[in-house]
Amino acid sequence: MIEIADGVFVRRHTELDLTLGLITGSGDSLLVDSGMDPGLAAVLAGEGLRPSRIVLTHNHFDHVLATEAFLPCEVWAHEDCVVDESLLAGRAEYYDEPFTGTLVAPTHTFRDSVALDVGGRRVDLHHFGPAHTSHDVVVHVPDAGVVFAGDLVEQGAPAQAGPDATPANWRHVLDLLLELDPRIVVPGHGNPVDAAFVRAMAIPEAS
Ligand SMILES: [Zn+2]
């Protein structure tokens, strides 16, 4: 875990260059995406961290498969975020062996935005419209100037637009993200970037 701002951490994974986030408050923490590594739950527990909430930025397999390892906790997502076996088709493109865990659906959903209290610290969840998926969630930590962008932003590789993407709305969504005036933007894959990177990034074509 790398601390990028006071009490705000990222965890970088070599697999798919995935980036997860952890936001800590007083006696509480929130995980941004559960990722694919069930072992992370034990690693965090060893440091006294048991996130009471996971926020899923979207339903792509690499962001949601390890949720089970963190239970019991609240699982937050946009109301259109469906976690079911259909997402395993995406995983099958990368891995031969079958997924043997249990998929965990969101327990708490929102439509436009919701403010959460993480141990006395405010964390805002926003949905700015369809782009990478129909239900992308942006996680904003106002007191740290940090935004977790999910796969709306990628560093080190181009952003990806699959069949479930809406490239025509992507720039608009990024403009709304930039209105949060972030100091640091954490992508779903790659290293943290700044607002200038997001402003300059190329929007992927529809596939
Ligand atoms: Zn994705």
Tally the helices: what do you get? 5
CATH topology: Metallo-beta-lactamase, Chain A
Please tell me the total number of domains: 1
Specify the structural class: alpha/beta
Please write the CATH class name: Alpha Beta
Number of strands: 12
| CATH superfamily (homologous) name | Ribonuclease Z/Hydroxyacylglutathione hydrolase-like
CATH architecture: 4-Layer Sandwich
- What does the overall shape look like? globular
Taking all Cα atoms into account, the compactness measure Rg is 16 Å
State the helicity in percent bands.
10-25%
Bound molecules: zinc ion
InterPro entries: Metallo-B-lactamas (IPR001279), NDM-1-like (IPR050855), RibonucZ/Hydroxyglut_hydro (IPR036866)
Protein name: Metallo-beta-lactamase domain-containing protein
Domain Metallo-beta-lactamase: 17-189
Organism: Lentzea guizhouensis
Detailed description of the structure:
There is one protein chain. The chain is an alpha/beta fold. The chain has a single domain (2-200), classed as Ribonuclease Z/Hydroxyacylglutathione hydrolase-like (Metallo-beta-lactamase, Chain A, 4-Layer Sandwich). The protein is 17% helix and 29% strand. It contains five helices and twelve strands. It has helices at residues 39-46, 61-64, 88-92, 167-178, 195-200; strands at residues 2-5, 8-12, 19-24, 29-32, 53-55, 74-78, 108-110, 113-118, 121-126, 138-141, 146-154, 184-189. Strands 1-2-3-4-5-6-7 form a seven-stranded mixed β-sheet, with no helix packed on it. A five-stranded mixed β-sheet has the order 8-9-10-11-12, covered by helices on one side. Strand 11 (146-154), helix 4 (167-178) and strand 12 (184-189) form a beta-alpha-beta unit. The radius of gyration is 16 Å and the shape is globular. The relative contact order is 0.16. The model has no long low-confidence stretch (mean pLDDT 97). Zinc ion binds next to loops.
